[in-house]
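Hey, quick one: can you model this chain's 3D structure?
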Amino acid sequence: MEMNTIIGIVAAVAIMLVGLIMILRKPKPVEPSLEADLHINPESQQPVIPRHVRDQLLQKEVVTSTERVEPSLNTEAIESEPVAKQAVDAVNVEAKTTEIEQTAKADEVVEAVSELEAAQKDETVVAEAETKEKAEESKAETELSLNPNIETVAIEEFDGESNILDVHLHEQQRYDDESALATAEQIIALNVYPNPRRALSGDKALKVLLKYGLRFGEMSCFHRYENTDEPSALMFSVLRMTDNGPAGFDLETLSGEQVQGLAFFLALPNSKAVTGYDMMTSIAGLIAREVDGKVYDENNLEFTPQLKEHWRHHVIDYRPNQATV
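Sure thing. Here's the predicted structure for all 325 residues.
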């Protein structure tokens, strides 16, 4: 079948369908219009209005009557409206003024009540404080007052000193009298100088001396004993260095002063000379490390290990008849 034949058949079918649709479609009824020609009754010469037209007219009249309201002119109402408005404004102003006055009066009442409550609270606090103070005073008086029912014992007069304190003081005094300072014939000295750029304050000097067990005592020196907890033999002592040489400590002014150096010295003869020398060199080295300084001997030579051994042998040789420790 050729293409032209197929196209023709399709076109014919389409034409048939269109015609069939036009035949089967119902025509839309035409509503009668109010503008159509009116029919005149020949006898009464009055127009004849069809029933469906009369219904449309009646519906339009009802709608118009419900929606449209003819305004009526009322001169008296128009004239009285400003007067009524002025009266309403006056009433509103008066009401607002009254409300403001009432609010102000209410604020004054609240403020007065607050002041009264604060005054009552202050009076209550003062009364409580006075009551508490009286209670404490009465309690203190009760505690201090003696109970008459308790038997008392007569205390004998104490004329002598405490035996324990007396023994302790006399024991330390005995060690001080027999110490090397009282019978010193030769001194072995070491000097500790801090870094010149870091001056040694009095507080720092006091702290390091106390840290290593030295106690302030005779000759305004700090002394190191064999035992720090009980009376014992003196090991060595410490003075402060000044421009004029070694000098004692003044504890009242030490905190506000600068200490140029510390002078350690061991007095010979000493019953425990070697022990005292070893302890002195050890503590001098520890303090020099804490104050960022160095240790020197009595000739201001840096205290090297060789010098340490030299002076140790000197201490040993000074007392050849005693056993070394």
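One thing worth noting: The chain has seven helices and eleven strands.
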